[in-house]
Amino acid sequence: MPELSQRITTLNGDGSDGWEVFYRARAMKEAGADVIELTIGEHDIRTDPAILRAMHESAMGGHTGYAIVPGISALRDEVAKRIEAQSGVPTRRENVLITPGGQAALFAAHMAVCNPGDVALIVDPYYATYPGVVRSAGAVPRMVATRSSHGFLPERNVLETASEGAASLLINTPNNPTGAVYPRDTLSDIADVVTVRDMWLISDEVYDTQIWDGAHLSPRAMPGMADRTLVIGSMSKSHAMTGSRIGWIVGPEDAITTLVDLATNTTYGVPGYIQDAALFGLRAGPELEAKVAAPFLRRRAIAERVLAGQNVVRAIPAQGAMYVMLDIRGTGMSGDAFANALLDAHGIAVMPGESFGASAAGHVRVAMTVDDDRFEAALATLCRFAAGRAEAA
Ligand code: PMP
Predict the structure, then answer these.
(1) Which residue pairs, CB below 8 angstroms and at least 24 apart, start in 74-82?
(2) Which residues does 236 contact at the CB level (< 8 Å), separation at least 6?
(3) At the topology level of CATH, where does 50-284 sit?
(4) Cα of 3 to ligand 1 centre, how many Å?
(5) In terms of pTM, does the model score above 0.90?
(6) Interval 70-81 mean pLDDT
(7) What is the pLDDT at residue 15?
(8) pLDDT band at 306; cut points 50, 70, 90
(9) CATH topology match: 6-46+287-387 vs 50-284
């Protein structure tokens, strides 16, 4: 066959895509092994039946044709209302593009603000797809290192150095994989740096309904930032609608206008019945969101309890999202070696920190996505395993 493009063949960079433990766990499961998967960010509940009924009624009512590309007006209005209520920044339909999930929104946002070859900053550790997203858009990822001892928050001096010559900065709060929720000080440092450098800020806020400590702050609400921020949203996490592929970008009207052109030529919008279901879900209000988030809050308390009983594994305080990040350097192992050994010894699959960037080396990310009892037992086993390894080291 003729050669494939460099853009596509170099999507994963030099290394692996970081999903080996996940795929190995899946293969073991398929072969009949009893494997507990604490790997991906997928709820253990399904989309609420009321949302599915709205989807069904919409489809049966005929909303199965091409939907208008920017998104149906009622949904754009509802997203605008939600973002305005959350941030205090006036937001209208013209500031909103509906996308097939947050993932497509991340790609479109980088396409909108990076020229080919531009440097796009990513805070490390990062959601595993970020470098590939940047490369798909023809830009070059550059990492902003953070420290476990600083709760994995980006630090001003590091940002200042890294941002030289960069076109954009991608942040994520509440954070996957670390559970960090960016405080005002951090957001204010970020706002200063991107303003001085005249950069775009892409703010991934797909976990905005999963906050365990404090409140969600969007950088779009910081003074002067609405003009240089693209907010990424999604109903995957907030409404357990991962498979429905529905999200959005909120940003300055001119940016959204050009993003609509991109959508016209790439995705051509999102199915009308999915949008109607999303509208129903948003209008269902905060009770439904709280119901979807509740298991993670409960399991976070379980994790705190289990981890309090030992001193080999250190938890990075999870203030939001559906994960706990564990520092396992006390075992003398890398996150990768630990995750593989834990899977072999006990059939428990967690993600190596290294899958999320160099800053998370020596850590593992545990998704709180199995029922409470199994979660508690798995975490207790993980801690005993770590203690055994630490003793042997
Ligand atoms: N951003 C983050 C931080 C995520 O964790 C995910 C999914 N795990 C996404 C974006 C993409 O989500 P979706 O495309 O399902 O909206």
Answers:
(1) 74/279, 75/275, 75/276, 75/278, 75/279, 75/282, 78/279, 78/282, 78/283, 79/233, 79/248, 79/250, 79/282, 80/250, 82/282
(2) 101, 102, 206, 242, 244, 246, 247
(3) Aspartate Aminotransferase; domain 2 (3.40.640)
(4) 31
(5) yes
(6) 98
(7) 65
(8) very high
(9) no
Q: Which helix (H) or strand (E) holds 307?
A: helix 286-308
How many residues comprise the chain? 393
pLDDT single digits (tens) 5-53: 999 999 988 766 678 999 999 999 999 999 999 998 899 999 999 999 9
100, two tokens: 């097939």
Q: Which CATH class is domain 6-46+287-387?
A: alpha beta
Ordered by start, the domain boundaries in the chain are 6-46+287-387, 50-284
Q: How many other β-carbons are positioned within 10 Å of the β-carbon of residue 251? A: 28
In percent, how much of the chain has pLDDT > 90? 94
pLDDT for 393 equals: 80
Q: What is the pLDDT of residues 356-391, one digit of tens each?
A: 999 999 999 999 999 999 999 999 999 999 999 999
Spatial distance between the Cα atoms of 233 and 281, rounded to a whole number of angstroms: 14
Ligand 1 mean position, distance from CA 232 (Å): 9
Q: How far apart are CA 310 and CA 148, in angstroms?
A: 19
Q: Which atom of ligand 1 is the closest one to the Cα of 127?
A: 3
pLDDT of the residue at 16? 65
User: Which residues form the pocket of ligand 1, taking CB atoms under 6 Å from any ligand atom?
Assistant: 41, 101-103, 127, 172, 176, 204, 206, 234, 236, 242, 247
Q: In what order do the strands lie in the sheet with 323-327?
A: 36-38, 348-352, 363-367, 323-327, 314-316
